Amino acid sequence: MDMGIGLWCLQSTATNPRSFGQAYQELVEDARMAEDNGIHSLWLSEHHAYYDGYCPALMPAAAAALAATESIQIGTGVLLLPLHEPHRVANAANLLNEQSSGRFHLGVGMGYRPIEFEIKQRDMSQRLKLMNAGLDALHSTTQTPTWVGISSEKAAERAGRRGLGLFISGAFSKDVVNTLIRAHRTAWEKSDPNQDTPPPVGLLRNLWIVDSPAERRQALNWVRSSYLVYAGLGWGADNTGVDFVSQIETSMDEVEKSATVGSAEEIAAELDGYDVDLVVCRIGYDQPPRTALTEVIERIGRELAPLVKDSGVKL
Amino acid sequence: MRLLLDLRNVSELAEREQLAREADEHGIWGVVVTGPRGGECVEASAIATATHHVSIVVDVDGNDVHPTTLAEEISVLDQITKRRTMIIFRGPSRSRTSLAALLGGLPVEGVILSPPPAQASIPVYSPEDIPETNLPEDLTQLAAIVDKYRDSQAPFLIVSWARSIKQLARHAVGRAASTDFPQMVADMADQIDPIDQ
Prior knowledge:
By secondary structure, chain A is α/β, with parallel strands linked by helices. Chain A has helices spanning 20-36, 58-67, 86-99, 114-119, 127-141, 153-161, 174-191, 213-235, 248-258, 264-271, 290-308; strands spanning 2-8, 41-44, 73-76, 79-80, 104-109, 146-150, 165-168, 201-209, 260-262, 278-282.
């Protein structure tokens, strides 16, 4: 399996305020650093109208990272397709791939925050319909490798039937992940039995390489803190079924349990149980100091990637 | 008057990037770029990454896109360009009004851009606001054309130019900026420091 890094959200959060200029400058620097260390890919993430400037326009950001590099892949993990005009997304994706010699990956998802649909005057209750129409439009207008962010078997099946890659979110157990992958693969096989190569599967994972119990505790605290960003995004959403305020500690405990933190060897052994082509190491938290981020990027590329390269399937 | 080098009809990205770098190096005020509908800011971002100083003037199609989506793309672009973004907008006037307000940091129907543009306000022009011309190789004719637009009080002039960017900068940038441009200095510079075409 290949090792990518994510999610670059380009925020200035309440927990770690910074200038947006710095955030976008560091995106370019981080893409170069990841490339220099043999990382397969760097993935960006999108939200709209959030106080911290969470990146609402991934294509220009991807263009900057691609223009500054030569071999690393850059992906969207994920672009919220129902909030965009699909023909514009396809045009931008095609241009990115043309300019980067095929290094751009388009990950798409549905979105879940009512405010994001409101500001684009879209009916959130129609988001599945909008998503499917968008995927239909993309299918006929772009050859860009396309991945679908999913969290249910039905969504995995839909992606499989379309022959699209899967981008699985971070907090699921190994059993759930492999169930989703099986649903995806089965749907793909039924849709066109004559195809040889199944669409790829990517797994987002909270992950950090450490050498001591103290470093482990520190990394887990960063993972817990990162949940605050997600909780903040969900706080304004009334359809998630989660009471983010009252459940914050419980949710943080669950996220901590799902994190993969250890030595490179321990992490490689843990990842070996996943039948995926790509693991996107979720390290783009807002709390770690820059030196820690730099170090973990180097170690993912130089220590972890060689250990897992024969696991899963090579993209 | 400030000169904007037109890169919209240069077919290869590598050539556009090279011309933009030369414009950057020799003090051309801006380059004009575009892309397929939805890809305009992608193109602009690539050019911005290749340059440091030159303004990036993006010719955008505002038809069939929510103005907030377009404003978000441009705002992110302005962070990437570090305040070097300017817009030529083609599309419905209502969308242009919304776009200009959003890019000026104002709320529109309760929406305010996040992140905001890096500039206090990103300039938004219509195509008819900025004249365009092909500059001739003959430097006397070039001077006459630049004088004409400068004296008409145009704030910008989009120019197509097929020769050396340094020569364009030497003969046209100062002339566009000032009515007392000393042509003699540019002519003598051509003898002291000839420019390979």
